[in-house]
Amino acid sequence: MTTNETERARSAEAEALRLDAADPGHRHLFHVPPADGGRYPDSAYLAGNSLGLQPRATRTELLADLDAWSRLGVEGHLEAERPWLPYHELLTAPAARLVGALPTETVVMNSLTVNLHLLMVSFYRPAGERTRIVIEDTAFPSDSYAVRSQARFHGLDPDTAVVRLRPRPGEENLRTEDVTAFLAAEGHTVALVLLGGVNYLTGELMDIPAITAAGRAAGAVVGWDLAHAAGNVPLALHDWDVDFAAWCSYKYLNSGPGALGGVFVHERHHGDDALPRYEGWWSTAAATRFEMTPVSRPPATVEAWQISNPPIFAMGPVRTSLELFDSVGMAALRERSLRLTGYLERLLDEVTVDRPLTVVTPRDPRRRGCQLSVRIGEGSANELTKRLRHEHGVIADAREPDVVRFAPVPLYSTYHDCWRVADALSATVEASS
Ligand SMILES: Cc1ncc(COP(=O)(O)O)c(C=O)c1O
């Protein structure tokens, strides 16, 4: 580095620290992993879109639930401070607030792909010429596998039953008008639209209300995978008339690896006996659960989609996290997110200008959450993220072959983290001469 470059880097770092002092976020509430390289003790953690950090409160809360089990045994179902029988209800209202739903429309259960399958049992019912499932070409592979296996389950050929929407040639992101035009033209053949609210690869935030309206107007059912949207962007699933949605809690919801997912089913589908659904003892109304009768009496709420009794020690971290979201508020988080990601974008603009790096996430802040995805023109994404981590203590994640994702998470990421990303990229990726 020349003296001038060193001076510029120093003043940019000082600026990041000034911004952190003015707009501090809630990092103190989280465990930040120590750095595995570089000159700072903590890592710059930009991988919250993959696995969120552990809230400090999680351990204490989990231990309290474990204590109840050791003290009470089976009686904990009714006598624990947070009794296990209705424990899942503690999560319902905060989850509903997070996604803009009525409490009767939201339940926390199972994992994301399992929930998508359970929802497709009800909401993917191919008939006549209306057989197709629409996904985005860059859907997360698990979703692609899930819908293809659903098509096969119904005796259909997945190669023709699953439609993969692609961006226009030379573009990185889907345009809303192209999705709605497709639905207007071919919607009569579509049974289900199942898109990611925020695309896992590009970070694009879809226009959920517009696409939902277009899909429903075409007579299709519209569901959303909100793995990268829940806790990242404000949502209003009820008002947007979404049919169903599912999300995980291990990314922006910081509830730990493999954490339980959430489900939304719009109230217009509640109590509809014509809808096929898989059932177990948690599908029957709570008041009838111990009548030990052979026939269920499901409630007219989303809880009819539950099957098994919930894993309490997996629910604890989700409860803790949702309380945190309630106390900070999604609107405030989104405001900080716009500031942080806008700042990272400005820094990346400077770094990418003379390097083989391109930000592929939409530039319009209304069309993205906190994540910025960078396509690398040379070398492997895995190799680059390894170097960022071991040489600079920057944790990002790679999606092979050529995308590296950076997610400044508004709860705990800092401006200094963003500065470290740009600094590390400029040191690691050679500028073209
Ligand atoms: C968009 C999306 N859908 C589905 C999944 C799969 O989730 P799970 O393994 O919890 O079923 C992931 C996991 O990262 C994801 O990002």
Automatic annotation (TrEMBL):
EC number: 3.7.1.3
Any one annotated GO CC term: cytoplasm
GO MF entry, a single one: pyridoxal phosphate binding
First-level EC class: hydrolase
Binding partners and assembly: Homodimer.
Annotated function: Catalyzes the cleavage of L-kynurenine (L-Kyn) and L-3-hydroxykynurenine (L-3OHKyn) into anthranilic acid (AA) and 3-hydroxyanthranilic acid (3-OHAA), respectively.
Cited Pfam families: KYNU_C (PF22580)
Substrates-to-products reaction catalysed: 3-hydroxy-L-kynurenine + H2O = 3-hydroxyanthranilate + L-alanine + H(+); L-kynurenine + H2O = anthranilate + L-alanine + H(+)
In-chain residues carrying the UniProt-annotated modification N6-(pyridoxal phosphate)lysine: K251
Pathway: Cofactor biosynthesis; NAD(+) biosynthesis; quinolinate from L-kynurenine: step 2/3; Amino-acid degradation; L-kynurenine degradation; L-alanine and anthranilate from L-kynurenine: step 1/1
Alphabetical UniProt keywords: Hydrolase, Pyridine nucleotide biosynthesis, Pyridoxal phosphate
Cofactor(s) this protein requires: pyridoxal 5'-phosphate
InterPro entries, sorted: Kynureninase, PyrdxlP-dep_Trfase, PyrdxlP-dep_Trfase_major, PyrdxlP-dep_Trfase_small
Name the UniProt record assigns to this protein: Kynureninase
Highest taxon in the source lineage: Bacteria
